[in-house]
Amino acid sequence: MKVSVDRDLCYGSAECAYRAPAVFEFIDGFGVVRPGRDRTDDPTVLEAAEKCPSQAITITDAPSSPGRP
């Protein structure tokens, strides 16, 4: 899946870096995707996106959950 963070939406809670530290880091008060980690199969990214209070994380090409298209 491909992951990105919209800095215009992010307000710096650091939830992403806490929940998926292998993919996200906290720089200058904002969550960012670590270099080279914008494509990942790390399942913690889905939780990070779901728990992001500003909904700044976008995931594309995400695997479908069972029972969902």
Class from helix and strand fractions: alpha+beta
**Rg, alpha carbons:** 11 Å
Secondary-structure element string: EHEEHE
Report the span from N to C terminus.
Answer: 16 Å
Shape: globular
* Strand ordering within the main sheet: 1-4
The unreliable regions are none
How much is the average pLDDT? 91
Q: How would you sum up the major sheet?
A: 2 strands, antiparallel
Strand segment tally: 4
Strand content: 15-25%
Helix content: 10-25%
Number of helices: 2
What would you note in describing this structure?
The chain has 2 helices and 4 strands. The strands form 2 sheets. A two-stranded antiparallel ribbon has the order 1-4. It has a two-stranded antiparallel sheet with strand order 2-3. A hairpin with a 2-residue loop joins β2 and β3. The longest helix has 8 residues. The model has no long low-confidence stretch (mean pLDDT 91).
